[in-house]
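I am writing to request your help with a piece of structural work I have in hand. Thank you for your consideration; the sequence and its tokens are set out here:
=====
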Amino acid sequence: MTRQVLIVGGGIAGLSAALACMKAGWDARLYEQFAQFSEVGAGIQLGPNATRILDDWGLDRALESVAAFPQQLRVRSAIDGRQLGRLRLGAAFVQRYGAPYATVHRADLQDLLLEAARAAGAYLKLSSRVTAVLPSIDAVGLRIGEGEEVEGDALAGADGLWSMVRSQVYSDGPPAWTGHLAYRAIAPQRDLPKPLRSDDVTVWLGPRLHVVAYPVRRGELLNVVAIVQGAASGSPQDWDQLAVAANLHIAMGRQCAPLQDLMRAMPRWRLWALHDRAPLASADEMVRGRVVLLGDAAHPMRPYFAQGAGMAIEDAAELGCSLALAAKAGIDVPLALRRYALNRWERCAQVQARSRRNGRIFHATGLVQWGRDLSLRLLGELLLDQPWLYR
């Protein structure tokens, strides 16, 4: 009899898990609380560590049809606009790592994962708000809404930063406020002045702030994210607050003219307050009995390393491998799930810690800022490339 894995959450992590588990020979049953699959946010950067997995899943052509593939990453000073460093992407990355560096709209990535999960036969149920986790010795269950209950052999909590599964199983409190605000905007490149259009990933570094801009949707759109230090407002769980552009411009201060032009040209800024958790300290934080956590539910990370989606896709792939081993070798399910956590937690913790460190470096002032800029000018690609991550 085919074993069943219950998956809570229909975002990137949940749909990736559904696809990976179906490929592993398990029956994936996914429950999403909203009435439709929709991804909040705009852009995602996917390094070779993630695009290689999508290729393994047979999604390389689907990704090519919706993504952009920048030729370089440029780091510039937000103060005077000078280039500080450069990393070749494009063909250089494919040759070096066997997979491309891609930038994609979140909705496009979710759509291609959704279609792949459906084609694989995953059961995907909308309008299904999970209200309780019901563990037992030989199975694990979920309560949907006020009364419906479902049961499976394993449960994957992929329900994001404010995970209900995590709160039920671990009771370890909410994520912590970081003191940083992320403003984002997206615009058709044809609507922007020519000097502002770009096929590159550009990172602008300034005192207590940084800005990232890159193309998505085959290069037709430009996605811009500005992260500044400031006071939170609104609900911490609202990832899509309407932003006041004047507040962003005040927080940005007087930066170089090209960056100011870019910020003023972008329409309809949205806002969210960044929260995270401390880096994982052990495998126990990703698995408990028949319950595992994936993506932001397990290891939320600050967006200073562009690896949130990548780590979620890696989680799903590793979960699929562990469950395939359980199916083929007859391994006990809790043991297989623990294998997943043991194979993931240290790498995820390293990426979480590096993301925090990058935030301090990106937003540096004074002597640290001076040293950062000098190091980038002297070492450039050696500092920006991350072989330990992309391989």
Observations:
- The longest strand covers residues 176-188.
